Amino acid sequence: MVLTIRPADVTDHEAIWRIFHEVVAAADTYAYPAETTRDEALSLWFPCGGWTFVAEMDGAVAGTYVMKVNQPGQGSHVANCGYMVDRAASGQGVGEALCRHSLAEASRLGFRAMQFNFVVSTNTRAVELWRRCGFAIVGTLPEAFRHPSLGLVDAYVMYRRLDGTD
Amino acid sequence: MVLTIRPADVTDHEAIWRIFHEVVAAADTYAYPAETTRDEALSLWFPCGGWTFVAEMDGAVAGTYVMKVNQPGQGSHVANCGYMVDRAASGQGVGEALCRHSLAEASRLGFRAMQFNFVVSTNTRAVELWRRCGFAIVGTLPEAFRHPSLGLVDAYVMYRRLDGTD
């Protein structure tokens, strides 16, 4: 398996929409509405001033991430990312490769930290993955996510410095 | 002193912009860039699908708040608010009146909780005010705010249920 991570462009729109829709329709990890349209999804995934990458595995897009400033102005030294992996490529390290790539990119761009605002607590694979990548849970939002089968569950705020101090 | 809180409309734009600009130019409480323009400010303060109110004190706009959904989709039962008070009206309970009004409005609209994503830790008056209004610090974002005189300082995530369970 050869995994290549590169900036996304317009030729990736169809693959990104396919992955986004699959993830969001499951409604168990992201707060994007299940009925998000293709245009809305691509606007979210290619925000003004943001950075979008794809992971190609054996020539096909297997995952993607978007990075942007988490807060403007006096908070603009903290990055935010969202990651999605094609279900067919699950369990092959694509998410971790995307996360490690995004941390390197964020450092290169001068960000001092990265923050995830809304990690669904029952998405334990993601929580463990972010921990492995150096993130800590810095906040717990009680019952902030309406899980389709589990009801109201907590969401976490996760945070990682990029300056090597922790 | 008579304090009236009512929905904002286009006739309030000038007063809201004056207050917004004053607060944001100080750069010590909000992450909006100090150079935010009037049009950008009004777009932020009158978001699609949001609710904007003003407090009138003796007939003049003394403060304002904006309420919106904090996360879409499976997180849309949690509201988010931002509040700003005219410096000339500071210390007269306008902020607390706005907050209590917003909590009542959020309940009436069916929200289950309210979340503040980025309360600057050195803004102790605000932190104490939100505590008085029932909010708890549920997260601490290390050095997430670049204070103009204090350097990098923490920001808090604050949260309050609206269903009377705490």
Describe the structure.
Two copies of one chain form a homodimer. Chain A is of the alpha+beta class. In chain A, 28% of the residues lie in helices and 37% in strands. Chain A has four helices and seven strands; from the N terminus they run βααβββαβαββ. The first copy, chain A, has a seven-stranded mixed sheet. In chain A, strand 6 (136-147) and strand 7 form a beta hairpin. In chain A, helix 1 packs across helix 2. The interface between A and B is large, with 38 and 38 residues.
Q: How does the SSE layout of this entry go?
A:
The structure is a homodimer of 166-residue chains.
Chain A: E1 3-7, H1 13-26, H2 38-45, E2 51-57, E3 60-69, E4 78-85, H3 94-108, E5 113-120, H4 124-132, E6 136-147, E7 151-161
Parallel strand pairs in A: 4-5
Antiparallel strand pairs in A: 1-2, 2-3, 3-4, 5-7, 6-7
List keywords for this structure.
homodimer, 166 residues, alpha+beta, 7-stranded mixed sheet, 4 helices, 7 strands, 37% strand, globular
Brief account:
2 copies of one chain form a homodimer. Chain A is an alpha+beta fold.
Query: Fraction of residues of chain A in helices?
Result: 25-40%
Biggest contact = A-B, 38 and 38 residues
Number of helices of chain A: 4
Q: Rg of chain A from C-alpha positions?
A: 15 Å
Biggest beta-sheet profile of chain A = 7 strands, mixed
Coarse shape of chain A: globular
Write the element-wise H/E pattern of chain A from the N-terminal end onward. EHHEEEHEHEE
- End-to-end distance of chain A, in Å? 32 Å
Which regions of chain A contain 5 or more consecutive residues with pLDDT less than 50?
none
Q: What's the oligomerization state?
A: homodimer
Count of β-strands of chain A: 7
Mean pLDDT across residues of chain A: 95
Question: Strand portion of chain A, in percent?
Answer: 35-45%
Strands of the widest sheet of chain A, in order across it, are 1-2-3-4-5-7-6
**What structural category do the secondary elements of chain A indicate?**
alpha+beta
